[in-house]
Amino acid sequence: MIHDNKEVILLNISGKDKPGLTASLMEILAEYNVNILDMGQSVIHQDLGLGILFEVPKESKSSSILKDLLFKAYELGTHIKFTPIPVNKYEEWVQNQGKERYIITLLAPKLTASNLSQVAKVIVEQKMNIDTISRLSGRKSLMKKDNITKAVVEFSVRGTPVDIASMKQALLTIASKSDFDIAFQEDNVFRRSRRLVCFDMDSTLIQTEVINELAKKAGVGEEVKKITTRAMHGEIDFKESFKERISLLKGLDEKVLKEIAENLPITEGAERLLRTLKQYGYRTAILSGGFTYFGNYLKARLGIDYVFANELEIKNGKLTGRHLHEIVDGKRKAELLELLAFKEDIHLEQVIAVGDGANDLPMLEKAGMGIAFHAKPTVKASAQHAISVNGLDTILYLLGFRDREINV
Fold first, then answer.
1. Model pLDDT for residues 41-82, shown as the tens digit of each residue
2. Which superfamily, per CATH, for 7-95?
3. Which CATH architecture has domain 196-405?
4. Which DSSP helix (H) or strand (E) runs through 137?
5. Buried b (16+ CB within 10 A) or exposed e, 283-300
6. Active site residues
7. Is beta strand 151-158 parallel, antiparallel or unpaired with respect to 129-135?
8. What are phi and psi of 329, to 5 degrees?
9. The pTM is what?
């Protein structure tokens, strides 16, 4: 039963941040034995913003508390403001705390007021509220070059979108017109407990299609490239295109594989991403329609835990134009992702899948977070999330990492 004689006060403090300020104010509140109902603090460029919502105990007088707080604020040289909160309004706020929550992450070379304005407008149109805005990237110097190459801001928003599909589309449209990446995801327990990251290899972990590189060496580059492009766009069956392409590699010397492997162009941000994931105990896997030879090379170089790909048949030091074992196509990738989740004893919602081609869609859909990375248009349109501007290490920000926590 709520009684009208309960007194709730919102205390707002602003001014220059200084050591001991919060402790001094809390000491006064402690003397009057008040109950803290909520609080939040932020510091931007040494300017403090502190809010404390508290309930005045029956045995205390609010006038005495406020007088002591005013005097202490004067001593500290800070501005203080008091707002009485009706108990029924406080109760409404309490009832709203069970509403859905979402995370919107913006990643750009630099963030402008226009970027933030457009995103905030979409949030308002969807009848949602912004609870907090946090900077995940480090502060960028205006005077000299530094290693901060992107600005990342995270919105925590509350409420149920009017139309979640149209909201996602509106955010993606803003991002595509302004040349930055944006992600929209539900803020739930799985978002904070991802444990396994599965990568496609070609055009994801590396910036090439290995089969095209092999074809160039075999003198059938243009022919294979055309088949590869059609397969990645989903225009022809992957298994049939795979058999057709590797048949054209018959007779290629095994030494060529080593030469190509040693010169694979690693995708921007991949090494930073893998180092950090390993540091924090994530498991990683390559699930590729490419070849085990190159997957195992990357496994050793990047510290990846699992590799599943296609195995080329080699006899007498030459490629035979055939493969061994089952072909890893889109369906098989999704099955392997599920098997790895079972092996690691984790929920599918705790798995991230990253890929660029049509044959990656089944695993992107199966994973709790599916990310289309610099993907073909059809893949980008179907995936939960898309990274189109930034490097692979962008994934760390989608997990909530801050620059200071990332293994540079």
1. 887 878 888 899 999 988 888 889 999 999 998 888 899 999
2. ACT domain (3.30.70.260)
3. 3-Layer(aba) Sandwich (3.40)
4. none
5. bbbbbbbbbbbbbebbbe
6. 200, 202
7. antiparallel
8. -110, -170
9. 0.80
